[in-house]
Amino acid sequence: ILCLVSAAAALDFKYHHTEELEEYLRGVHAANPSLTHLYSIGRSVEGRDLWVLVLGRFPTHHKIGIPEFKYVANMHGDETVGREILLHLIDFLVTSYGRDPVITRLLNNTRIHIMPTMNPDGFEATKVPDCSYTQGRYNRNGQDLNRNFPDAFENNSASIQPETQAVMDWIKNETFVLSANLHGGALVASYTFDNGNPVTGSLKGYSKSPDDDVFIHLAKTYASNHASMYKGTRCDNREPFPGGITNGYSWYQLEGGMQDYNYVWGQCFEITLELSCCKYPPADQLEKFWRDNKVALIEYIKQVHLGVKGQVTDKNGNPIPNAIVEVQGRPHVCPYRTNEQGEYFLLLLPGTYVINATVPGFKSMLKTVEIPDNTGNFSALKQDFSFPEVSDKIRSRVASCPKTPLYQELTRASAAVKPTVHILVLMTIMLVIFK
């Protein structure tokens, strides 16, 4: 244990290969057993663990009212900066807890999951570091993990990889509210949707989600707190990214991306952070990358406390899982539902909203809420719903959104409505002429 503690205390600015990374994570956990929890969500094709270190006041389990946050890096094995700065983020959080009041409050009120590498095989396969593309981008089966998730717009024919399935199961088993995945090869914060169709405005070159305002805010939060991302300079000297952010589809269309999957099926807002023009830069640049991203990484985590949260309960105060809780005017194609504890979390910017809570088979309940900016207080606005006509013997049926291109269904529904609208307009005109 003393050796592990010693290893945790010495984190150099260098690249940490699999054994070193595991040793460091085990050392941090051994040195901070009440603040951290180390677990693997699965294994890569070659059998390497996909390690996650959790940090928080209640690291081993979900606590009602405390939102779940995650950072994932290195899903492209040759994009390495995120892998290393997440290790330094871990180091900063554990050494600041109890000393820095902001970090202490953040960890007391947030459960933070950090996965330094989603593609350890790809990282180990990158024998010659390069600033541009290498084969290490892919997993051991030659698959791009950021093209490997179910897609809400098209039938993704890619075979689901072990690393992808592990992340999908992870998302299903936790109540993640906010996330970011860390990449390299550009310097920009990109937000959903990565794919699109006419329903989401793709014909105009922008694929807009129902929570577009929140996503823009999240991307701006990271970019504006980064040392230079906010300047919007492109690595290839083409048109700049205004403010250092971009809608994913506006940049380039991507099928089977992880951030869209998180948002549609995981009820988790995720953005993609491109942190370096060079995918695999020399190790002597890592310290500067950490300094450039340090503030942004912390400020972004705070955004998990935006909006409103609460519980849906029956007449006896028992939680109701799978109740639908949405904001009027911004329904999700896969409705957002409460977890097993009857909890919901909705990320919203400050303003007035009507929250609609629905237990299938019963009358919906509407509540108007005025949402302040509570990120500085590390707690979203609390708004509970109690259904007095629901007993503890009645439960919503387990709801699962099908892994089909859900937005294709919307396109067909929209097309089917159009003739009806045209007929109604024609009938109205004929009625006016007749009168």
Descriptors:
disordered C terminus, 2 domains, 435 residues, single chain, 11 helices, disordered N terminus, alpha/beta, four-stranded mixed sheet, Immunoglobulin-like, Aminopeptidase, eight-stranded mixed sheet
How would you describe this protein?
The chain is of the alpha/beta class. It has 2 domains: 18-305, 3-Layer(aba) Sandwich (Aminopeptidase); 308-396, Carboxypeptidase-like, regulatory domain (Immunoglobulin-like). The protein is built from 11 helices and 15 strands. It has helices at 2-9, 18-31, 81-96, 101-109, 120-125, 162-173, 212-225, 248-251, 258-265, 286-302, 406-434; strands spanning 36-43, 49-55, 68-73, 111-115, 176-183, 186-191, 245-247, 269-276, 308-314, 324-327, 343-346, 351-358, 365-371, 381-382, 385-387. It has an 8-stranded mixed sheet with strand order 1-2-4-3-5-8-6-7, with helices on both faces. Helix 1 crosses helix 2 (18-31), helix 2 (18-31) packs parallel to helix 3 (81-96) and helix 7 (212-225) packs antiparallel against helix 10 (286-302). Residues 14-304 form the Peptidase M14 domain. This is CBPM Carboxypeptidase. It holds the Pfam family Peptidase_M14. The active site is at 274 (proton donor/acceptor).
Helix-strand blueprint:
Elements: H1 2-9, H2 18-31, E1 36-43, E2 49-55, E3 68-73, H3 81-96, H4 101-109, E4 111-115, H5 120-125, H6 162-173, E5 176-183, E6 186-191, H7 212-225, E7 245-247, H8 248-251, H9 258-265, E8 269-276, H10 286-302, E9 308-314, E10 324-327, E11 343-346, E12 351-358, E13 365-371, E14 381-382, E15 385-387, H11 406-434
Parallel strand pairs: 3-4, 3-5, 5-8, 6-7, 9-14, 9-15
Antiparallel strand pairs: 1-2, 2-4, 6-8, 9-11, 10-12, 12-13
Helix pairs in contact: 1-2, 2-3, 3-10, 7-10
